């Protein structure tokens, strides 16, 4: 019997294995979670405009970015505290990325160090940077450069922490502060608890390595106490510091994207942080076609990607590469690296089916002509 037909099946498996507070950390968004729903609604509301009598007997999912070819237009998005979901979660994700020939982006808030992940895989490695203070940020950049990361991603939408009501109610934080409620929660999820005891409770490894022991910074990162003064001048200094490709994540304004293009950004990620920072902002997918018309640099997108059809919609709207976080973390939480691979298999199969049925033999040929406007969907031509 097949037990993985869609991503919701994997989500249910993850929910069964994880304690409630950990699942809520993975699942939750800002405020009342309108932003989460808007991300999904915006993707669901996009319809395809299939083209017929197109030869689709051979289909190619590959995508190119910065002169490199990847097996599909997908990267594993930067996500924090993955070791809470599965022991050595960051390395499991990186190994899965290598198997599927897609980029893996390591978060500043990882539970494996920059160096450990670099040693664990030959995947294309990107490093995502949170700036809490400038000196520390320079140190992280130098560590990533020395470890062989090809691309730096600056996240710009965390000047302060979003109000995540699930985490506030559960008291979720690392390290865990035990209470009767949390003890009962973990005791009723023995598979998760035994794995954590066996491997040791995770911590924010980049701040607790031999090279960087900083308990205060770990606490600051959990509370998202960032450098709220990081501005265009600071961006210029970072651009000068990093000699390779620099992507800016968290963009929700075409005007900002244009200014970043002029300031030296090599690409931008239209993202609302998966609905986890500010809930009353647009879904990134709704902004892509305007961005495509205005920008010369590549566009990436995250926030809400759960299927191969979602990937196709984002690429048709203007994204060269999509990024997915939660969907792959469901797989990680349910079954570790094997679960991540199951999700990637599912997304790859769905994208293949979508290309065939839309009438587009290559993912990189998807364009707005493959999307139906709302008016055309409501009033089809005869």
UniProtKB/TrEMBL annotation:
Highest taxon above the source species: Bacteria
InterPro entries reported in the protein's UniProt record: Aldolase_TIM (IPR013785), Alpha-hydoxy_acid_DH_FMN (IPR012133), FMN-dep_DH (IPR000262), FMN_HAD (IPR037396), FMN_hydac_DH_AS (IPR008259)
Domain FMN hydroxy acid dehydrogenase: 1-376
Cofactor(s), names only, from the UniProt record: FMN
Keywords: Flavoprotein, FMN, Oxidoreductase
Gene3D superfamilies for this protein: Aldolase class I
Coiled-coil segments: none
Alphabetical list of PANTHER family matching this protein: 2-HYDROXYACID OXIDASE 1, S -2-HYDROXY-ACID OXIDASE-RELATED
Similarity remark: Belongs to the FMN-dependent alpha-hydroxy acid dehydrogenase family.
Entry protein name: Alpha-hydroxy-acid oxidizing protein
């Amino acid at each position: 019997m097949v037990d993985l037909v869609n991503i919701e099946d994997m989500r249910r498996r993850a929910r069964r294995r994880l304690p409630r507070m950990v699942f809520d950390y993975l699942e939750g968004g800002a405020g009342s979670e309108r932003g989460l729903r808007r991300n999904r609604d915006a993707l669901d509301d996009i319809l395809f405009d299939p083209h017929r009598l197109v030869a689709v007997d051979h289909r190619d999912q590959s995508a190119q970015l910065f002169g490199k070819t990847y097996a599909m237009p997908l990267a594993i998005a930067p996500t924090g505290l993955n070791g809470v979901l599965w022991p050595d979660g960051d390395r499991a994700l990186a190994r899965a990325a290598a198997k599927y020939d897609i980029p893996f982006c390591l978060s500043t808030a990882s539970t494996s160090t920059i160096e450990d992940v670099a040693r664990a895989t030959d995947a294309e490695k990107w490093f995502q940077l949170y700036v809490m203070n400038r000196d520390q940020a320079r140190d992280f950049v130098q560590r990533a450069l020395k470890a062989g990361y090809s691309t730096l991603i600056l996240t710009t939408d965390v000047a302060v922490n979003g109000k995540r009501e699930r985490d506030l109610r559960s008291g979720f934080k690392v390290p865990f502060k035990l209470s009767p409620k949390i003890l009962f929660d973990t005791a009723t999820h023995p598979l998760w608890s035994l794995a954590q005891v066996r491997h040791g409770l995770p911590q924010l490894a980049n701040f607790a390595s031999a090279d960087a022991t900083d308990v205060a910074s770990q606490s600051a990162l959990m509370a998202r106490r960032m450098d709220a003064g990081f501005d265009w001048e600071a961006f210029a200094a970072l651009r000068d510091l990093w000699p390779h490709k620099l992507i800016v994540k968290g963009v929700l304004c075409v005007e900002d994207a244009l200014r970043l293009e002029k300031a030296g950004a090599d690409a931008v990620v239209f993202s609302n942080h998966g609905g986890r920072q500010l809930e009353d902002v647009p879904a990134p997918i709704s902004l892509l076609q305007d961005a495509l018309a205005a920008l010369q640099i590549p566009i990436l997108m995250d926030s809400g990607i759960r299927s191969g059809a979602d990937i196709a919609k984002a690429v048709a709207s203007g994204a060269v590469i999509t990024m997915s976080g939660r969907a792959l973390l469901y797989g990680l939480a349910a079954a570790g690296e094997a679960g991540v691979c199951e999700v990637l298999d599912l997304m790859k199969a769905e994208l293949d089916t979508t290309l065939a049925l839309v009438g587009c033999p290559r993912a990189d040929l998807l364009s707005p002509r493959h999307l139906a406007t709302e008016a055309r969907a409501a009033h089809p031509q005869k």
